[in-house]
Design goal:
Helix content is about 35%, strand content about 20%. The chain is an alpha/beta fold. α1 crosses α14. The longest helix has 19 residues. It binds flavin-adenine dinucleotide (FAD). The site of flavin-adenine dinucleotide has 32 residues, from α1, β2, α2, α5 and α14.
């Protein structure tokens, strides 16, 4: 039986549904598809050779932690405690429900949920290691062109590609530094390997990715100085063990605009402090309203939020486990970690041609020169789809099959996640799941939102397709004469 931990290079020539991306969104779309239309033949296409699902749960080691407590990470909305129950079955008594557990364990749990669902429903799926670089409508179907040159013909498509990586933030000032001294992709294991001991590690960004990389560098035994450079020089704020009193907002007040919303949040946080409770409840209580509020704000308010308030919001909303931040603070006090507010003004080889010379223009206007053993991009995904070099996104936008949302944060969709083309037509039988819907939903990042999107996308697509019409023999025959890359394991 093919499972998400056993990808093959061979893609079947045809399927009912092609799922682009084998991260949480793609796999949960598959799970929901198997549950509602077990006869639907699905192919999951994933380009990265990761040991687990997607960047968050695949490109991590045993020490990288979730930033959401275990009890809220169940893959099924109807059973949010499912992950903690799985932990209890596999590691009795080891993890508390409110604990931040290793992300790799969540990856294992997710992969098991997929395999179990496929077994229970007797649904068929193939897991193919290849990148989709182009999608073209062919009559009632879609032809997916893969990086290997192969093609897959599908009746429906679920796009779940996550966010494209940003181009290196130093790109415009890079004078051609030796490539082994710069790491564009922080999730590539090579990013923290083989650093010379006598220079600094410069991490560009100071969010959750940078914290992961700091931990990765220290675990690898590297003892050099680490400098985090980001525009605002702020680290995420810590999670608290317990949030205390719940906060109830009037959604109409939040919808009035950015300033009204922030006044309401500040008022709630002050009130919590006054009665001896924690401010975090004021942030978390916004989340159930976030999509409706974002949808109600006109483009000018959304722009104002992105320009002025997003960095503050992000450090409050995307918090880090407290003990990791404490470890960083200890190192800051000892001088082995420094956080600099500023931007890279130039990047060149040093005089000896052994290290990179990073010149940082600080927020105060001064210049700092740092001799770096490696410069690592921790700036997160691209904020604008037009900036990305991602071949599939570029091709979808160029051919007008997809349209960027007004702020360019992602792609336009209707309420069920159907892609909207450049001429305004809804692309029937094509769904988008994941963070590329953030332009229209904003909160489209974490497990709770994504599991809901995946369910809607899979169920509505299966209904539209009336699934199960592809010749099943093409998928079940595993003899040599079977079509290439046949989907296996189906009853
Ligand atoms: C470091 C990190 C930690 C996180 N921690 C948490 C957490 O604790 N809790 C939480 O709720 N959320 C967390 N998140 C948010 C996380 O993004 C979501 O939970 C979820 O993993 C997103 O899944 P996704 O499938 O939408 O995107 P991704 O995980 O990015 O998966 C998309 C996949 O699609 C593949 N792909 C893209 N384009 C193509 C193509 N053209 N062809 C083939 N394959 C393609 C990519 O290689 C990738 O594997 C974290 C995110 C990160 C980055």
């Amino acid at each position: 039986m093919p499972t998400p931990d056993r990808y093959t290079a061979e893609a079947p020539a045809e399927c009912d549904v092609a799922i682009v991306g084998g991260g949480f969104s793609g796999l949960m779309s598959l799970v929901r598809l198997a549950q509602c239309a077990p006869k639907c033949q699905a192919v999951v296409l994933e380009r990265r050779p990761l040991p687990g699902p997607g960047v968050a749960y695949g490109a991590c080691d045993a020490e990288h932690l979730l930033n959401v407590p275990a009890a809220r990470m169940g893959v099924f909305a109807e059973r949010p405690t499912g992950f903690h129950e799985w932990l209890e079955r596999n590691f009795p008594g080891r993890y508390r429900a409110d604990e931040f557990v290793p992300r790799a364990l969540f990856g294992r749990y997710l992969a098991e949920a997929v395999s179990q669902t496929l077994a229970d429903t007797k649904a068929c799926a193939a897991f193919v290691r290849d990148a989709v670089v182009h999608i073209e409508p062919l009559g009632q179907r879609f032809e997916l062109l893969l990086a290997s040159g192969r093609t897959v013909l599908a009746r429906g498509v679920i796009l779940a590609p996550g966010l494209p990586p940003a181009r290196a933030p130093w790109r415009a000032v890079d004078e051609g530094v030796t490539r082994s001294l710069v790491a564009q992709d922080p999730w590539d294991r090579a990013a923290v390997k083989g650093l010379a001991p006598d220079g600094d590690a410069v991490l560009v960004g100071s969010g959750l990715t940078a914290i992961d990389l700091v931990m990765g560098l220290r675990r690898s035994g590297w003892k050099g100085r680490i400098v985090l450079v980001s525009r605002n020089g702020r680290l995420p704020l810590p999670h608290a063990a317990s949030h205390g009193a719940p906060v109830v907002y009037d959604p109409q007040e939040l919808m009035r605009g950015v300033h009204a919303a922030f006044r309401a949040v500040r008022r709630a946080a002050k009130e919590l402090a006054r009665v001896g409770h924690d401010w975090r409840a004021a942030i978390d209580a916004v989340r159930p309203h976030a999509q409706a509020v974002w949808g109600a704000w006109p483009a000018s308010e959304r722009q104002a939020f992105l320009r002025r308030l997003r960095p503050f919001w992000e450090i409050h909303r995307h918090r880090a486990p407290a003990h990791l931040l404490e470890a960083i603070e200890r190192e800051r006090a000892a001088g082995t970690i420094e956080v600099v507010a500023g931007a890279i003004a130039s990047l060149r080889m040093d005089a000896a041609s052994t290290h990179a010379e990073v010149v940082v223009r600080t927020a105060h206007g001064s210049l700092r020169v740092i001799r770096a053993s490696r410069v690592i991009n921790c700036s997160g995904p691209a904020m604008s789809v037009s900036e990305t070099l991602d071949p599939l996104l570029g091709s979808l936008l160029r051919m007008g099959f997809a349209l960027a949302d007004r702020l360019g944060l992602g792609l336009r969709t209707d309420r069920e996640g159907r892609l909207i083309g450049a001429d305004g037509t809804v692309q029937r039988r094509v769904r988008l799941v994941g963070a590329l819907r953030r332009g229209e939903l904003w909160e489209s990042t974490a497990v709770p939102e994504l599991r809901a999107q995946a369910a809607v996308a899979a169920e509505s697509l299966a209904q539209e397709l009336g699934c199960g019409t592809v010749d099943r023999r093409a998928f079940t025959d595993r003899s040599d004469s079977a079509p290439r890359g046949a989907i296996g394991g189906c009853a």
